[in-house]
Design a protein that fits this description.
Nodulation protein NfeD, 5-stranded mixed beta barrel, 2-enoyl-CoA Hydratase, Chain A, domain 1, single chain, Membrane_assoc_protease, alpha/beta, elongated, 6-stranded parallel β-sheet, OB fold (Dihydrolipoamide Acetyltransferase, E2P), about 50% helix
Length: about 425
């Protein structure tokens, strides 16, 4: 009955609609990229006067604001919007359940689940009981309003927020949370067609490269890797100032990681511990601690990685953490060894460092003139008589910021010879 009333409201539009189905696929957290993708899909479907928008959904949840904007797009759509929790093993929990409830039509495959809509804060911040109650009541009221708008089970809507209740596909169908049970897209569209909606050509609408990039950034393991690589780049730049490339790479990686952390439910205590671990690693390069700073850095790194994503629906792979930890230790050991080798070399600076450098005569001169050495212009005294512009010279000595230079003679085979 509930679905018939939804279709009757859209009947005038369905009569003139083309029998084209726009299919969207969304797997991963709900964020700005997912919102933009669905918004674009709805817009293009309306422009094409499609008969149905099908969203195949698999999500652990996401940002409240992005979810509400997606629900608003669905509620304002003049084309039936069908959300299908698919494939088997997928889920539409938290923000995904709101999208499921907001849809004109809803379906789930066997082995999928929905629910668990209790609001959580990003960053692991402690909030007052009063604020928790406000957030809970707001989420409950919104999900109830969606359930009533689509004539779905309001009791489950309340329990999903208040008690984090969940349902499998069969339970959701029995409790009127969804309209269809189907194990494939073909089976689902066949059932939808039997209810009076035109089903013809299927048009798959993938994410654009921009949407795909931003959406992938909401994957916890990728965000964690970007954070680690970003710290590598910054440490390299601090260790060798002026290298530039590691600094640019590190800054870009950290920026992308911080973008991800604005969407993911990251625990900032874990993030701070990871930053502190890299600080200890860097100090190990500057201070002789006989390995104590390195040991402390390793402990903080693994502890911070464990705490970084506290929610079980946004897991960080233990394998990723282990590989990143080993790579980090090897990275700093290599830098330390290179630093020790560099310290073993004789350092030449100031006047001593200028001896035997090759330069070029800037202008003709016989006694004193200008030469270009090591990227700088120097006053020079010739020890080889007259020198022509462009000739190569070698620095013999330096006194009072004046170079004494000699001509580099050319051998018969064209090689330079002092």
């Amino acid at each position: 009955m509930k679905m018939k009333s939804s279709i009757l409201l859209l009947l005038p539009l369905l009569i003139f609609a083309r029998d084209e189905v726009y299919t969207l696929s969304l797997s991963g957290p709900i964020g700005p990229a997912a919102r933009d993708y669905i918004r674009r899909g709805v817009r293009e479907a309306h422009q094409a006067q499609a008969s149905l928008i099908l969203l195949k959904l698999d999500t652990p949840g996401g940002l409240d604001l992005a979810m509400r904007e997606i629900c608003q797009e669905i509620l304002n759509s003049n084309i039936p919007f069908l959300t299908f929790v698919y494939p088997p093993g997928a889920r539409a929990v938290s923000a995904g359940t709101f999208i499921l409830m907001a849809s004109h039509l809803a379906a789930m495959a066997q082995g999928t689940s929905c629910g668990a809509c209790h609001p959580v804060t990003i960053g692991g911040k402690e909030i007052s009981e009063e604020m928790k109650m406000k957030m809970e009541n707001d989420a409950s009221a919104y999900l109830l309003s969606l359930a009533r708008a689509r004539n779905r089970d309001t009791i489950f809507a309340r329990e999903a927020v208040k008690k984090s209740a969940t349902l499998d596909a069969e339970g959701a169908f029995q409790r009127r949370v969804i309209d269809f049970l189907a194990n494939s897209e073909e089976e689902l569209l066949k059932k939808v067609k039997e209810r009076g909606i035109k089903i013809g050509r299927i048009r798959n609408l993938p994410m654009s490269p921009r949407e795909k990039l931003l959406h992938h950034l909401t994957e916890p393991n990728l965000a964690y890797i970007l954070l680690t690589l970003g710290m590598y780049g910054i440490i390299l730049e601090l260790q060798s100032p002026g290298t530039i490339l590691p600094g640019i790479f590190g800054t870009l990686s950290l920026t992308l990681a911080l973008y991800s952390f604005q969407i993911l439910p990251v625990n900032y205590v874990g993030l701070i511990l990871i930053f502190l671990s890299f600080l200890l690693f860097f100090l190990e390069l500057k201070i002789t601690s006989y390995g104590l700073l390195t040991v402390g850095g390793i402990i903080l790194f693994f502890l911070g990685s464990t705490l970084l994503f506290p929610r079980i629906d946004f897991p960080l792979s233990p394998k990723t953490v282990l590989i990143a930890g080993i790579a980090t230790v090897i990275f700093f050991l290599l830098i330390l060894l290179l630093g020790i080798r560099a310290q073993g070399r004789r350092v030449q600076t100031g006047p001593e460092g200028m001896i035997n450098l090759i330069g070029e005569v800037v202008e003709d001169f016989s006694e004193t003139g200008q030469v270009f050495v090591r990227g700088e212009y120097w006053k020079a005294i010739s020890l080889s008589g007259s020198l022509k512009k462009g000739e190569k010279v070698r620095v013999v000595s330096i006194s009072d910021m004046v170079l004494k230079v000699e001509r580099i003679e050319k051998t018969q085979n064209g090689r330079d010879m002092a």
